[in-house]
Design brief:
Layout: H1 5-15, E1 28-31, E2 40-44, H2 49-57, E3 62-65, H3 82-92, E4 96-99, H4 102-105, H5 111-118, E5 122-131, E6 135-143, H6 147-156, E7 170-178, E8 195-207, H7 211-221, E9 229-233, E10 238-254, H8 255-265, E11 274-276, E12 282-292, H9 297-303, E13 307-311, H10 315-322, E14 329-333, H11 335-339, H12 342-356, E15 362-365
Parallel strand pairs: 2-3, 2-15, 3-4, 12-13, 13-14
Antiparallel strand pairs: 1-4, 5-10, 6-8, 6-9, 7-8, 10-12, 11-14
């Protein structure tokens, strides 16, 4: 069964949540009807004219790109402008366009994971880790005999999920005591009498976005007129998502050999692979950033890596980063080449996600070289 554009976008949004995109970015569906069936999908780095023509002439229903077509605000998509003509042709041909940019950079796995993988890096971690999702700890006191029912209700509302485990909780037994006052309608005991009840203290983790739903479920499931509960906001820790990756080579190698490995495992461009550092320096730990990476030099230096692989390095940041041979060796590659490996990951993960819901599509990765430079003298 073929999915719709909306079905495909839903899977992509789970892989590359738009909420992970930088505030300045423009990600998501650019053209296309969510109800339109999708038979064929083309993946590419850039929504260039040549790539759009490839999608249209190849009868692809959806083009998924890394870079946005309309990154900056526009007030017109008239056919008198290059991008206007691209938008017009996409709409006329019923070709949908979807963008996964910095949300794919910050995903796990994301763009830099794919770059690290083709270079053979192991034990990778984010260079610029995003904070984990805000979490609460819920503590509720419940009669012992109601504990399992309460646990079920809270889990259904979104509490108690830890990694690949659900309904995770801790409980301990103690005594709860109270005296109902005039106007109360106690489940246990009588107005004016002191009551002592065997209760469990039940603790569960709750994503903060689910706080309201979990509290409502707690009150609905609890037998007490006034249930006692606490909510603690937990410290925010670094997550496994974020930009760039730091990893270790399977075996140390000389810089000149590592640079050759980089050149052999990335698509060839006129830009080539530029190297800064002693060719005979030993390389073991490596930082990578798919795309432009000279804004991350402080983090790279703090990570104390032997080499840094990225794109678009400028003269002054690069010379300062080398700090007279005290910093990491630098390997500068073409922007397009550094991000192209992600297309394979996106294709594979999308196909897996669609297969899980019983959908199948035909996919293709564009091999058109859309790096800006096409001649080097």
């Amino acid at each position: 069964m073929n999915p719709t554009v909306g079905d495909v976008v839903a899977v992509l949004d789970r892989l590359y949540d738009p909420a992970w995109a930088e505030s300045w970015d423009a990600v998501g569906l650019v053209t296309g009807d969510p109800d339109q069936p999708v038979r064929r999908i083309l993946f590419a780095v850039d929504p260039m004219r040549a790539v759009v023509d490839e999608a249209i002439t190849g009868d692809f229903d959806l083009l998924v790109t890394h870079h946005p077509l309309l990154l900056r605000g526009v007030h017109s998509v008239a056919g008198t402008t290059p991008k206007g003509r691209v938008v017009r042709d996409l709409i006329k041909s019923n070709t949908a366009l979807h963008v996964c940019h910095t949300n794919a950079d910050n995903a796990n796995p994301g763009v830099s994971d794919a770059l690290a993988a083709v270079l053979g890096l192991r034990d990778t971690r984010p260079l610029k880790a995003l904070p984990s999702d805000p979490m609460d700890k819920l503590v509720v006191f419940v009669p012992v005999e109601e504990t399992q029912a309460m646990l079920d209700a809270l889990a259904k509302a979104g509490a108690g999920r830890i990694g690949d485990y659900e309904r995770a909780a801790w409980s301990g037994t103690g005594e709860g005591t109270f005296r109902p006052l005039e106007g109360a309608n106690p489940t246990v005991g009588q107005v004016g009498d002191i009551e002592v009840v065997a209760e469990n203290r039940l603790e569960m983790l709750v994503p903060r976005r689910n706080r309201r739903a979990v509290v409502e479920a707690l009150k609905a499931a609890h037998s007490y007129e006034e249930p006692a509960f606490d909510i603690y906001e937990l410290a925010v820790l670094p997550s496994e998502r974020g930009g760039g990756r730091v990893g270790v080579l399977p075996e140390p190698m000389l810089l000149k050999d590592f640079a050759r490995l980089v050149a052999d495992n990335l698509p060839q461009t006129e830009h080539g692979v530029r190297v800064s550092g002693d060719p005979d320096r030993t390389i073991e730990t490596v930082a990578v950033v798919g795309g432009a990476g000279d804004s991350e030099f402080d983090r790279v230096r703090a990570a104390r890596v032997d080499a840094y692989v990225t794109a678009d390095l400028r003269h002054h940041p690069a010379t300062e980063a080398r700090a007279y041979d005290e910093g990491p060796a630098l390997i500068d590659v073409a922007h397009w080449a550094s991000e192209w490996p992600w297309l394979r990951d996106a294709e594979r993960l999308l196909l897996e996600g669609l297969a899980d819901q019983g959908s199948t599509v035909d996919t293709h990765i564009s091999t058109l070289r859309t790096d800006a430079w096409n001649l080097r003298l």
